[in-house]
User: What shape does this take?
Amino acid sequence: MSNMIAAANPTAPLDTPEQAHAAARSSAWGAWLGAAVGVLGSVVTYMQRDTIIEVTRQAMEAEFAKQGTDPAQAEAAMAMASGGFMFGIGVTLFFALIYVILGFVQWKKPNVVIPIILLLLTALNVLMTVYGLVSSPASMALFGPAQIIVFLLTLVTLVLHWAGLRGALAHRRFVEMAGG
Assistant: This one.
């Protein structure tokens, strides 16, 4: 366990090919944790769906009233938002499956591409979460303890992907130096 924690340290020196290989595998752990976070977030979101849809409906009604939107158009927009909600959960679960597969690929044959992709996707996730909270009072009202845990775990995956990228780059250097 301590070797795994040492490998996941994004500031640890990578002086041997074994250390670099272990660090590159950190991105696999990040992918699996990311998949678990996606499933957990989807379950929490689904369990709170009525509250989320109601808060969204209230926020949309207030915005439509402020803009003077036709009530029929407002109702159609709210119906679309409710349908998109379940689609979003499905997309999240699909990406969780992709993350599991990418985690296994990174574990078997560590490379640079997977940590870069997952690092960028995770960073985008963090930025979009922060933007959503800052730009929407309705989002802030829904951000409870479960969402805080999911967000913190997402930050952990960000660190794991960074460590995985460092390890994969160092591992590639060791392979190139060995002539392979």
In short: The mean pLDDT is 86. The CA atoms of residues 129 and 135 lie 10 Å apart. Helices lie at 2-7, 17-24, 26-47, 49-67, 71-108, 113-135, 137-142, 145-177. The chain has eight helices and no strands.
